[in-house]
Amino acid sequence: MEILELMKHRRAIRRFEPKQIEEEILKHILEAGLYAPSAGGRQSVIFAVCQNQEVNLKLGKIKRANSNFRMAENGSYISTEQPSIVDAPKLVSSFYDAPTVITMFAPKNFLFAAEDCAVAAENMMLTADAFGIGSCYIGQGWTAFAGPYGQEILQKWNIRTDYYAVMQLLLGYPKRGDQHPSPKPRKNGRVLRF
Predict the structure, then answer these.
(1) CA dihedral over 186, 187, 188, 191, signed as positive or negative
(2) What is the pLDDT of residues 66-89, one digit of tens each?
């Protein structure tokens, strides 16, 4: 698929099959993240890949409990096709039961930490889509590690104390029977030329 067509096709996926993605595909996705641009060429983003269903469920529930979203109302939804935790209060995990969750950590005191994670996530989401893998970018990564369990996981994963969880990238096969989310029409007036 040509890169522009791939960009047009990629959508956030929030409903996943329980089947784990193949290791060879995961390697390609991670390689795309490792080759993402980074400010000053620092390559400081750490990619913590968790495929442990129990850990992902617990961290996803902690993240859900610690996220202060103003729930969607009056027809203003993130997605009507695949509701987000903002749209559906009954969803219990911010990770939507994705079989693979990649938490991206970056230096606490680096000006462009979040941007480095975002560009790496985009590389990985496009690569995932090329392999038929669904993905979803989840911001405010640190909320998953609030409290004793989250701190225990950070120690178990040997995450440096001068780093913080910027975001999570969810990966998995899209739920069978779901249609690929349709693209929203592009809004006019977003490109200004002088």
Answers:
(1) negative
(2) 876 665 566 666 666 777 777 777
DSSP letters for 23-69? HHHHHHHHHHHHTS--GGG----EEEEE--HHHHHHHHHHHHHH---
Confidence of residue 20 (pLDDT cuts 50, 70, 90): very high
- For the stretch 128-143, pLDDT in tens is 999 999 999 999 999 9
Q: Which of 57, 96, 121 is nearest to 87 (CA)?
A: 96
Query: Could you tell me which residues are beta bridge partners of residue 167?
Result: 104
8 Å CB contact between 100 and 136: no
Among 173, 168, 135, CA closest to 59: 168
